[in-house]
Design brief:
six-stranded mixed beta sheet, alpha/beta, binds ribulose-5-phosphate, 30% helix, four-stranded antiparallel beta sheet, 6 helices
Length: 223
């Protein structure tokens, strides 16, 4: 199977998961990225069941709206049953690296509101120890050099993402060369650096459910 066929398969499985478990009229959080895009295209078929969606990025909001799916402001939502999103890496403890698409801060905010985080990805994203994928860190523009120096002290090699500005008007430092054996500790440590908006480690709020597309089918893991 091609990578896109795997993404399509897991997107379909996530649509079925939502259709089976999210009460009619409830709110669905929707992530960002190529796998999330397949999921958005799939949920067009069940949009009548949804009370509305909350998007984790401007690009996701536009794709949802393009399908005629209602997009709500998070501040107008009291509760969200399920959040579905991809990941760049996920470890056996269901901690993730996210932010390859630069939407990490809004993703983390939307995920914080959701009862259940459903991660959708293909088997290549499941790793014993995270860090091969560079860890994205969103920073306030005037702080980027300071934050880069502090990240280097933690053993990483930060590189400014060239020509990229987040939906929040900030910059991304991609930190190479980390071996993340303590995801919660590192998430907390990086978030304490002045100038960091947030980092792409989703360890304090990891995935509750992982739908993993493998050639033999879509496998389900629970936290
Ligand atoms: C975007 C993300 C994505 O979920 C992550 O990058 C995975 O993307 P893809 O499904 O394209 O591999 O965190 O900020």
């Amino acid at each position: 199977m091609t990578q896109d066929e795997l993404k399509q398969a897991v997107a379909r499985a996530a649509r079925d998961y939502v259709a089976d478990r999210l009460p009619v009229g409830a709110i669905l959080g929707v992530g960002t990225g190529s796998t999330a895009n397949f999921f958005i295209d799939e949920i067009a078929a069940i949009k009548g069941r949804l009370g509305g969606t909350v998007a984790s990025s401007e690009v996701t909001a536009r794709r949802l709206a393009g399908h005629g799916i209602r997009v709500l402001d998070l501040n107008d939502v009291d509760a969200m049953g399920i959040y579905v999103d991809g990941a760049d890496e996920i470890d056996p403890g269901m901690s993730m690296i996210k932010g390859g698409g630069g939407a990490l801060t809004r993703e983390k905010i939307v995920a914080a509101v959701a009862d259940t985080f459903v991660c959708i990805c293909d088997a290549s994203k499941r790793v014993p120890v995270m860090g091969r994928f560079p860890l994205p860190v969103e920073v306030i523009p005037m702080s980027s050099a300071h934050v880069a120096r502090e990240l280097a002290k933690l053993g990483g090699s930060p590189r400014l993402r060239d020509g990229f500005v987040t939906d929040n008007g900030n910059l991304i430092l991609d930190v190479h060369g980390l071996s993340i054996t303590d995801p919660v500790g590192l998430e907390d440590r990086i978030n304490q650096i002045v100038g960091v908006v947030t980092n792409g480690l989703f360890a304090r709020r990891g995935a509750d459910v992982l739908l993993l597309a493998a050639p033999e089918g879509v496998l389900t893991f629970q936290r």
